[in-house]
Amino acid sequence: MKIKGYYALLSLVCLVLGFMIAYSYSLTAKREPQKQRDKQWDREYELRSSLIRQEKANATLEKKVVNLQKKVRAEEQKLGDQQKQFSDAVKEVEELRMYLGRVKVKGAGIELILADATKIPGDKNVNNYLVHDGHIQMVLNELYASGANAIAINGQRLTAHSFVTCIGPVVNVNGTEHPAPFIITALGNSDVLSKALNIKGGVIDRLLRDNISVKLQTKSDLTFERYYEK
Hints:
alpha+beta, Alpha-Beta Plaits, five-stranded antiparallel beta sheet, DUF881 domain-containing protein, DUF881, coiled coil
């Protein structure tokens, strides 16, 4: 009887122990998926946090890029303005040099030939039929007012300091005497210059009334040598 009771007790202990092991395994099996889910959530949270931090960093960098681009555009605009000012200054210097006759220039323009009257009545004053410095100066004033860039008389380049005076039957240009006919060439818009001279009651009409022979024609290939001071 004692042996049977011992086996019965041992069986009961084994049964309880087995039940406890099975229950413990069951709890462990239930906790494991939860741990996996917790780890996955932590990982996702960490990734989301890292992504948010990266997006903030990117936004900061984008702002810096925008500010730098603004600075670059401002510098480019400043440089463009400086280049334009420099270009304008160079153009102004070139125009001044051309006006002063310091550079050789070529281009289109007009040619105006002034000559003394071919027939002079014997009972008239011969001076009233000759080209005088006043006639030439009248032509020069009109040409300059109409935008002529360069002017020459009988091939002699004029400058801002040039002078034209009469000395008997000849005209003195910058100290050089020139007899008639006087060939006045002007560089510029030939259409504008021609119309300015031919305007009704203008320069050419006044020259004709003074018995001056006038011949005007346009030119496409005028050349003006630079002026050399004596």
